[in-house]
């Protein structure tokens, strides 16, 4: 397992190394440094990993553990599948992407991603536009940014990700809880997830080698 599988990029000084169930059967996560940035990686035996359900879950769980261990230190998350044949190849990519990492860290520092879905009760007849407006009125003022996600079900009325300041997390939690008792949302189930590394608000892609 001589290749490096990348979960995300942090600024130097995070000093991360821990044992866990990682992608591709690895059991240790550590960092590869290049100047002011560190790639958080594990070893893997391929540069083209297959995205199985198990490894996709491991990827997300490692990112969540990194967030917990860095106490809010911003991490630029990578999408599943970024693997490199050597430390040298990885460092070359970090070198070329430094401006993008700098911008991304500036945009997400002190912020987390939270997910909100509103699903109608089975056979319920609802005013979708009114529900969308209600959710926007309650949540948008508390978020730095938000993006719509795929509507993968006819019963899914709202599926959005929100980038929220960590200092606003409690207020955002309360606003989501209030949606469950909102008189205009009686036939809707509220699903609240997170925090996540801010995938939906980072657009940094690095090519596998």
Give me some keywords for this one:
209 residues, alpha+beta, Alpha-Beta Plaits, 6-stranded antiparallel sheet, 4-stranded antiparallel sheet, 5 helices, 31% strand
How would you sum up this structure, described in words?
With 209 residues, the chain is α+β, with helices and mostly antiparallel strands. The chain folds into two domains: 107 residues, no CATH class; 89 residues, Alpha-Beta Plaits (2-Layer Sandwich), CATH 3.30.70. Helices cover 29% and strands 31% of the residues. The chain has five helices and ten strands; from the N terminus they run E-E-E-E-H-E-E-H-H-E-H-E-E-H-E. The strands form two sheets. Strands 1, 2, 3, 4, 5 and 6 form a six-stranded antiparallel sheet that branches. A four-stranded antiparallel sheet has the order 8-9-7-10. It starts with a strand and ends in a 13-residue tail after the last strand. The relative contact order is 0.18. The mean pLDDT is 88.
Query: What is the helical fraction, as a range of percent?
Result: 25-40%
- Tell me the number of structural domains: 2
- Gap between N and C termini: 15 Å
What is the H-and-E element order?
A: EEEEHEEHHEHEEHE
Shape verdict = elongated
Q: What proportion strand?
A: 25-35%
The radius of gyration over CA amounts to 19 Å
Oligomer: single chain
- What is the mean pLDDT? 88
In total, the number of strands is 10
Low-confidence stretches: none
* Structural class category: alpha+beta
Biggest sheet architecture: 6 strands, antiparallel
* Number of helices in the DSSP assignment: 5
Family: Belongs to the gas vesicle GvpF/GvpL family.
Organism: Halostagnicola larsenii XH-48
Main location: other
InterPro entries: GvpL/GvpF
């Amino acid at each position: 397992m001589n290749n490096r599988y990348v979960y995300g990029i942090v600024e130097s000084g995070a000093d991360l190394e821990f044992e866990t169930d990682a992608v591709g059967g690895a059991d240790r996560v550590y960092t590869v440094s290049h100047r002011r940035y560190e790639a958080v990686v594990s070893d893997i035996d391929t540069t083209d990993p297959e995205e199985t359900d198990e490894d996709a879950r491991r990827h997300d769980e490692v990112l969540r553990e990194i967030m917990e261990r860095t106490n809010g230190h911003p991490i630029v998350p990578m999408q599943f599948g970024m693997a490199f044949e050597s430390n040298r190849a990885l460092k070359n990519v970090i070198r070329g992407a430094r401006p993008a990492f700098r911008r991304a860290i500036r945009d997400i520092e002190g912020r987390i991603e939270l997910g909100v879905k509103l699903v109608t009760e089975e056979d319920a007849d609802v005013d979708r536009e009114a529900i969308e407006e209600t959710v926007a009125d309650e949540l948008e003022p508390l978020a730095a940014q938000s993006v719509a996600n795929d509507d993968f079900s006819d019963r899914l009325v709202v599926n959005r990700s929100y980038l929220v300041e960590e200092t606003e997390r409690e207020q955002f939690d309360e606003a989501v809880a209030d949606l469950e008792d909102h008189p205009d949302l009686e036939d809707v189930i509220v699903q609240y997830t997170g925090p996540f590394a801010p995938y939906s608000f980072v657009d940094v892609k690095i090519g596998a080698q």
